[in-house]
Design goal:
The chain is α+β, with helices and mostly antiparallel strands and about 280 residues long. The chain is built from twelve helices and seven strands. The chain has two domains: about 55 residues, no CATH class; about 190 residues, Muramoyl-pentapeptide Carboxypeptidase, domain 2, CATH 3.30.1380. Bound molecules: zinc ion.
Length: about 280
Protein backbone atom coordinates (compact mmCIF):
# COMPACT_ATOMS: atom_id res chain seq x y z
CA UNK A 1 0.00 0.00 0.00
CA UNK A 2 1.29 3.43 -0.88
CA UNK A 3 2.18 5.70 1.99
CA UNK A 4 1.73 9.41 1.59
CA UNK A 5 4.75 11.50 2.43
CA UNK A 6 2.58 14.57 2.60
CA UNK A 7 0.26 13.42 5.34
CA UNK A 8 1.89 15.42 8.09
CA UNK A 9 4.52 18.04 8.73
CA UNK A 10 6.68 15.35 10.26
CA UNK A 11 6.53 13.30 7.11
CA UNK A 12 7.39 16.31 5.00
CA UNK A 13 10.37 17.11 7.18
CA UNK A 14 11.57 13.52 6.76
CA UNK A 15 11.11 14.01 3.08
CA UNK A 16 13.28 17.11 2.99
CA UNK A 17 15.93 15.41 5.08
CA UNK A 18 15.89 12.49 2.67
CA UNK A 19 16.60 14.89 -0.16
CA UNK A 20 19.48 16.36 1.77
CA UNK A 21 21.10 13.04 2.56
CA UNK A 22 20.79 11.94 -1.02
CA UNK A 23 22.44 15.17 -2.14
CA UNK A 24 25.39 14.33 0.10
CA UNK A 25 25.02 17.46 2.23
CA UNK A 26 25.59 17.90 5.97
CA UNK A 27 23.39 15.93 8.31
CA UNK A 28 22.17 18.88 10.34
CA UNK A 29 18.63 18.01 9.29
CA UNK A 30 16.40 20.48 11.15
CA UNK A 31 18.59 23.45 10.23
CA UNK A 32 18.78 22.23 6.67
CA UNK A 33 14.99 22.03 6.55
CA UNK A 34 14.59 25.56 7.87
CA UNK A 35 17.05 26.85 5.32
CA UNK A 36 15.22 25.08 2.57
CA UNK A 37 11.91 26.61 3.60
CA UNK A 38 13.47 30.07 3.74
CA UNK A 39 15.00 29.60 0.32
CA UNK A 40 11.78 28.28 -1.12
CA UNK A 41 8.61 29.60 0.60
CA UNK A 42 6.59 27.35 -1.69
CA UNK A 43 7.67 24.41 0.46
CA UNK A 44 5.95 25.87 3.51
CA UNK A 45 2.87 26.64 1.44
CA UNK A 46 2.91 23.12 0.05
CA UNK A 47 2.85 21.78 3.56
CA UNK A 48 -0.12 23.99 4.50
CA UNK A 49 -2.10 23.05 1.40
CA UNK A 50 -1.43 19.33 1.66
CA UNK A 51 -2.26 19.33 5.35
CA UNK A 52 -5.64 20.87 4.53
CA UNK A 53 -6.57 18.06 2.17
CA UNK A 54 -8.74 15.05 2.97
CA UNK A 55 -7.16 11.85 4.27
CA UNK A 56 -8.41 10.06 1.17
CA UNK A 57 -6.57 12.54 -1.06
CA UNK A 58 -3.38 12.38 1.02
CA UNK A 59 -3.41 8.60 0.75
CA UNK A 60 -3.12 8.59 -3.02
CA UNK A 61 -0.21 11.05 -3.14
CA UNK A 62 2.91 8.94 -3.63
CA UNK A 63 6.37 9.29 -2.18
CA UNK A 64 8.43 11.81 -4.05
CA UNK A 65 10.60 14.87 -3.98
CA UNK A 66 8.69 18.04 -2.98
CA UNK A 67 10.82 20.20 -5.25
CA UNK A 68 9.97 17.95 -8.16
CA UNK A 69 6.32 18.25 -7.14
CA UNK A 70 6.58 22.04 -7.11
CA UNK A 71 8.32 22.12 -10.49
CA UNK A 72 5.48 20.00 -11.92
CA UNK A 73 2.91 22.24 -10.22
CA UNK A 74 4.40 25.38 -11.72
CA UNK A 75 4.35 23.80 -15.15
CA UNK A 76 0.62 23.21 -14.68
CA UNK A 77 0.00 26.77 -13.43
CA UNK A 78 2.04 28.09 -16.35
CA UNK A 79 -0.10 26.09 -18.79
CA UNK A 80 -3.03 28.39 -17.97
CA UNK A 81 -1.56 30.82 -20.47
CA UNK A 82 -2.84 28.44 -23.16
CA UNK A 83 -6.40 29.20 -22.06
CA UNK A 84 -8.38 32.39 -22.43
CA UNK A 85 -8.27 34.53 -19.29
CA UNK A 86 -11.67 35.98 -20.20
CA UNK A 87 -13.25 32.73 -19.10
CA UNK A 88 -12.90 30.69 -15.92
CA UNK A 89 -9.61 28.93 -15.22
CA UNK A 90 -9.28 25.48 -16.82
CA UNK A 91 -8.77 24.27 -13.25
CA UNK A 92 -11.91 25.88 -11.84
CA UNK A 93 -13.19 23.58 -9.10
CA UNK A 94 -16.82 22.77 -9.75
CA UNK A 95 -18.66 19.99 -7.94
CA UNK A 96 -21.60 19.51 -5.61
CA UNK A 97 -20.06 22.03 -3.18
CA UNK A 98 -18.34 24.46 -5.57
CA UNK A 99 -20.64 26.18 -8.00
CA UNK A 100 -20.80 28.66 -10.82
CA UNK A 101 -23.40 31.40 -11.20
CA UNK A 102 -26.57 31.27 -13.28
CA UNK A 103 -25.20 33.97 -15.55
CA UNK A 104 -21.87 32.29 -16.33
CA UNK A 105 -21.52 31.41 -19.99
CA UNK A 106 -18.13 31.08 -21.70
CA UNK A 107 -17.40 34.12 -23.88
CA UNK A 108 -16.70 32.48 -27.23
CA UNK A 109 -18.49 29.20 -27.64
CA UNK A 110 -17.75 27.39 -30.89
CA UNK A 111 -20.67 25.63 -32.49
CA UNK A 112 -19.88 22.03 -33.49
CA UNK A 113 -20.70 21.47 -37.15
CA UNK A 114 -20.94 18.18 -38.94
CA UNK A 115 -17.38 17.30 -40.01
CA UNK A 116 -15.04 14.53 -41.16
CA UNK A 117 -13.07 14.19 -37.92
CA UNK A 118 -15.75 13.19 -35.42
CA UNK A 119 -19.47 12.48 -35.40
CA UNK A 120 -22.10 14.44 -33.52
CA UNK A 121 -25.45 12.99 -32.60
CA UNK A 122 -27.22 16.14 -31.41
CA UNK A 123 -27.77 19.66 -32.67
CA UNK A 124 -26.72 22.74 -30.75
CA UNK A 125 -23.44 21.38 -29.43
CA UNK A 126 -20.76 23.92 -28.54
CA UNK A 127 -17.46 24.15 -26.67
CA UNK A 128 -14.97 26.77 -25.56
CA UNK A 129 -12.40 27.31 -28.35
CA UNK A 130 -9.61 25.62 -26.36
CA UNK A 131 -11.56 22.42 -25.86
CA UNK A 132 -12.92 22.51 -29.40
CA UNK A 133 -9.36 22.62 -30.78
CA UNK A 134 -8.33 19.87 -28.37
CA UNK A 135 -11.29 17.75 -29.45
CA UNK A 136 -10.16 18.02 -33.06
CA UNK A 137 -6.65 16.86 -32.11
CA UNK A 138 -8.06 13.96 -30.09
CA UNK A 139 -10.44 12.99 -32.87
CA UNK A 140 -7.65 13.11 -35.45
CA UNK A 141 -5.52 10.78 -33.32
CA UNK A 142 -8.49 8.41 -33.03
CA UNK A 143 -9.05 8.63 -36.79
CA UNK A 144 -5.40 7.74 -37.36
CA UNK A 145 -6.14 4.53 -35.45
CA UNK A 146 -9.25 3.92 -37.55
CA UNK A 147 -11.71 5.07 -34.86
CA UNK A 148 -14.47 7.66 -35.12
CA UNK A 149 -15.54 9.32 -31.89
CA UNK A 150 -19.13 10.45 -31.46
CA UNK A 151 -19.83 13.53 -29.35
CA UNK A 152 -23.20 13.59 -27.65
CA UNK A 153 -23.16 16.46 -25.15
CA UNK A 154 -20.96 19.50 -24.63
CA UNK A 155 -21.67 22.96 -23.14
CA UNK A 156 -24.90 23.22 -21.18
CA UNK A 157 -26.33 26.43 -19.84
CA UNK A 158 -27.47 26.80 -16.23
CA UNK A 159 -31.11 26.75 -17.37
CA UNK A 160 -30.62 23.68 -19.53
CA UNK A 161 -28.92 21.85 -16.66
CA UNK A 162 -31.76 22.80 -14.33
CA UNK A 163 -34.32 21.23 -16.66
CA UNK A 164 -32.12 18.21 -17.30
CA UNK A 165 -31.73 17.50 -13.59
CA UNK A 166 -35.50 17.88 -13.09
CA UNK A 167 -36.05 15.45 -15.95
CA UNK A 168 -33.81 12.80 -14.37
CA UNK A 169 -35.47 13.26 -11.00
CA UNK A 170 -38.78 12.48 -12.71
CA UNK A 171 -37.40 9.43 -14.51
CA UNK A 172 -35.16 7.93 -11.80
CA UNK A 173 -36.12 9.62 -8.54
CA UNK A 174 -34.02 12.12 -6.61
CA UNK A 175 -31.49 9.69 -5.16
CA UNK A 176 -30.48 8.18 -8.49
CA UNK A 177 -30.58 11.54 -10.24
CA UNK A 178 -28.06 12.92 -7.72
CA UNK A 179 -25.63 10.12 -8.64
CA UNK A 180 -25.72 10.72 -12.38
CA UNK A 181 -26.85 14.25 -13.07
CA UNK A 182 -25.64 17.58 -11.74
CA UNK A 183 -27.86 20.26 -10.30
CA UNK A 184 -27.74 23.61 -12.07
CA UNK A 185 -24.57 25.57 -11.32
CA UNK A 186 -22.59 22.46 -10.40
CA UNK A 187 -21.97 20.85 -13.79
CA UNK A 188 -18.63 20.76 -15.58
CA UNK A 189 -20.68 21.10 -18.76
CA UNK A 190 -21.52 24.72 -17.90
CA UNK A 191 -17.79 25.52 -18.18
CA UNK A 192 -17.82 24.58 -21.87
CA UNK A 193 -14.76 22.38 -21.33
CA UNK A 194 -16.40 18.97 -20.79
CA UNK A 195 -18.06 16.57 -23.15
CA UNK A 196 -19.84 13.24 -23.24
CA UNK A 197 -19.06 10.67 -25.88
CA UNK A 198 -21.82 8.41 -27.16
CA UNK A 199 -23.29 6.14 -26.07
CA UNK A 200 -23.85 7.97 -22.79
CA UNK A 201 -24.05 4.85 -20.67
CA UNK A 202 -21.82 2.11 -19.26
CA UNK A 203 -21.77 0.37 -22.63
CA UNK A 204 -19.41 3.09 -23.86
CA UNK A 205 -16.54 1.63 -21.83
CA UNK A 206 -16.71 -1.64 -23.78
CA UNK A 207 -16.88 -0.08 -27.22
CA UNK A 208 -13.76 0.29 -29.36
CA UNK A 209 -13.94 4.12 -29.16
CA UNK A 210 -14.53 3.86 -25.40
CA UNK A 211 -11.44 1.73 -24.88
CA UNK A 212 -9.38 3.95 -27.14
CA UNK A 213 -10.45 7.11 -25.29
CA UNK A 214 -9.79 5.55 -21.89
CA UNK A 215 -6.26 4.68 -22.98
CA UNK A 216 -5.38 7.81 -24.97
CA UNK A 217 -7.43 10.83 -23.85
CA UNK A 218 -4.90 12.10 -21.30
CA UNK A 219 -2.16 12.29 -23.94
CA UNK A 220 -4.26 14.99 -25.56
CA UNK A 221 -5.24 16.78 -22.35
CA UNK A 222 -8.63 15.16 -21.72
CA UNK A 223 -9.22 13.90 -18.20
CA UNK A 224 -11.81 11.34 -17.07
CA UNK A 225 -13.81 13.26 -14.47
CA UNK A 226 -15.71 10.52 -12.66
CA UNK A 227 -13.60 7.36 -12.44
CA UNK A 228 -14.69 3.98 -11.16
CA UNK A 229 -14.64 3.60 -7.38
CA UNK A 230 -14.63 7.29 -6.41
CA UNK A 231 -18.31 8.15 -6.10
CA UNK A 232 -17.75 9.20 -2.49
CA UNK A 233 -15.10 11.67 -3.72
CA UNK A 234 -16.60 13.04 -6.92
CA UNK A 235 -20.26 12.75 -5.93
CA UNK A 236 -21.02 10.87 -9.14
CA UNK A 237 -20.98 7.27 -10.12
CA UNK A 238 -18.52 6.12 -12.76
CA UNK A 239 -19.05 7.95 -16.06
CA UNK A 240 -16.79 6.35 -18.66
CA UNK A 241 -18.08 8.76 -21.31
CA UNK A 242 -17.48 12.12 -19.57
CA UNK A 243 -14.15 13.94 -20.07
CA UNK A 244 -12.97 17.42 -19.19
CA UNK A 245 -10.25 19.21 -21.14
CA UNK A 246 -7.56 20.45 -18.76
CA UNK A 247 -4.41 20.27 -20.94
CA UNK A 248 -1.62 17.74 -21.19
CA UNK A 249 0.42 19.21 -18.30
CA UNK A 250 -2.47 18.89 -15.84
CA UNK A 251 -3.29 15.36 -17.03
CA UNK A 252 0.32 14.35 -16.35
CA UNK A 253 0.26 16.06 -12.94
CA UNK A 254 -2.99 14.29 -12.09
CA UNK A 255 -1.56 10.91 -13.00
CA UNK A 256 1.84 11.37 -11.38
CA UNK A 257 0.81 12.90 -8.04
CA UNK A 258 -2.93 12.40 -7.46
CA UNK A 259 -3.59 8.75 -8.25
CA UNK A 260 -5.02 9.89 -11.59
CA UNK A 261 -8.09 11.27 -9.79
CA UNK A 262 -9.06 14.63 -11.28
CA UNK A 263 -11.10 15.67 -8.23
CA UNK A 264 -8.09 15.38 -5.90
CA UNK A 265 -5.93 17.48 -8.21
CA UNK A 266 -8.63 20.12 -8.67
CA UNK A 267 -9.10 20.34 -4.88
CA UNK A 268 -5.35 20.75 -4.48
CA UNK A 269 -5.12 23.48 -7.16
CA UNK A 270 -8.11 25.27 -5.67
CA UNK A 271 -6.50 25.23 -2.22
CA UNK A 272 -3.15 26.31 -3.67
CA UNK A 273 -4.73 29.38 -5.28
CA UNK A 274 -6.66 30.18 -2.10
CA UNK A 275 -3.85 29.97 0.41
CA UNK A 276 -1.11 32.50 1.02
ZN1 LIG B 1 -21.16 14.69 -18.89
Amino acid sequence: MKKSVFSSLCAILMFFCGSFVSCGQKKNKPAATENLQVQNPDLAKLNRVLSSMSERAKNVIPNGNPEEFLADLHRVLESRKNFSSEDLSPFYLIDKNHTVGADYEPKNLVHLEKNDLFAINKNNLSLRPESYEALKVLAQAAKNDGITLTVSSTYRSYEYQKNLFAYWVKVDGLEEAERESAREGTSQHQLGMALDFAPVDDAFADTVPGQWVYKNAAKYGWSLSFPHGYEDITGYRWESWHFRYIGVEACEFQKKWFGDVQQFMMEFLDAWEDKL
